[in-house]
Amino acid sequence: MATLEDKLKNPVWYSLQETHNKFLIEYNGVKFYNPEINNFGSFFEVDKTLKAADNYTKITDKFFFVSENDVPVINTDKIKLEKKINGCQMVLDQLTEVALIDEITPLTKKHIDEVYQLIWLVMPGFYQKKGFNMGKFFGIFKENKLVAITGQRMQTNDFIEISSVVTHPDFTRRGLAKQLIYHTTKDILNDKKLPILHTNKGNAAIPLYEKLGFKYTRDMNWWLYKKL
After folding, report:
1. What is the Cα 149 distance to its own chain's centre?
2. Which pLDDT tens digits describe the chain residue by residue (228 residues)?
3. Which of 56, 77, 143, 163 registers the highest number of CB atoms within 10 A of its CB?
4. CATH superfamily membership of 90-218
5. Long-range contacts of 29-38 (CB under 8 A, 24+ apart)
6. Distance from C-alpha of 78 to C-alpha of 24, rounded to nearest angstrom
7. What is the domain partition of the chain in residue ranges?
8. How far, rounded to the nearest angstrom, does the alpha carbon of residue 194 sit from its chain's CA centroid?
9. Burial letters for 16-33: b for 16+ Cβ neighbours within 10 Å, e otherwise?
10. What is the C-alpha to C-alpha distance for residues 156 and 193, in angstroms, rounded to an integer?
């Protein structure tokens, strides 16, 4: 049986094996999300990624392999590496208390379009609209406009990943993200799971995550591929 540490080392794999199994597409022993939900893939055996990637690109033009250390093998006649994101994983150690000043609203399916538009405004290119189905989303509204959100992404029986931490450019530096991350972290703890997150190395938000009680655990690399 896989331990929590095993699952943290390969979060995409175990999310698809457990909580997100309903989103699983599998080729040649390599696990992928249904690309309508998310375009992440994961593996244990590098030599299986070539055939699996060829199959996955029949249903999507771009996808990520997520890996702590291993480098995927790809058919370069059909697929090219668009970029490698040097990321890291952070896990909650001890949550720092935060005063909630703004009203935080649980988001529902009626907010899907607003969530999608805000994420694509700030971080265009990766989020699928049906990614809303991966977990809970929370938001802050100003003047009846959604201006900041946090969401949940990868999940297993043991952890839930905080993701989609986005604030509209006109509303930054007001502590909205801090409140939302705190609220989402508390919600995950109430579900008796471990809050984790992934981010780019050098991200300006890392000091905020550290102040809230998250600690670096390991590298987590994101290999973005594009079908030729």
Report:
1. 14
2. 899 999 999 999 999 999 999 999 999 999 999 999 999 999 999 999 999 999 999 999 999 999 999 999 999 999 999 999 999 999 999 999 999 999 999 999 999 999 999 999 999 888 999 999 999 999 999 999 999 999 999 999 999 999 999 999 999 999 999 999 999 999 999 999 999 999 999 999 999 999 999 999 999 999 999 999
3. 56
4. Gcn5-related N-acetyltransferase (GNAT) (3.40.630.30)
5. 32/56, 32/63, 35/59, 35/60, 35/63, 35/128, 36/128, 36/130, 37/128, 37/130, 37/131, 37/133, 37/134, 38/128, 38/131, 38/134, 38/153
6. 23
7. 4-87, 90-218
8. 15
9. bbebbeebebebbebbbb
10. 9
Quickly tell me which residue has 């609209």 as its tokens: 129
Report yes or no on whether pTM surpasses 0.70.
Answer: yes
> Which tokens belong to 31?
């696990």
Cα distance between residue 205 and residue 55, in whole Å: 36
What is the distance between the alpha carbons of residues 149 and 39, in angstroms, rounded to a whole number?
Answer: 21
DSSP-H helix ranges across 2-43: 4-9, 11-17
Residue type for 134, please?
Answer: M
- Asked if 115 contacts 83 with a C-beta cutoff of 8 angstroms, the reply is no
**Cα-based distances in Å from 46 to 2, 130, 131:** 20, 29, 27
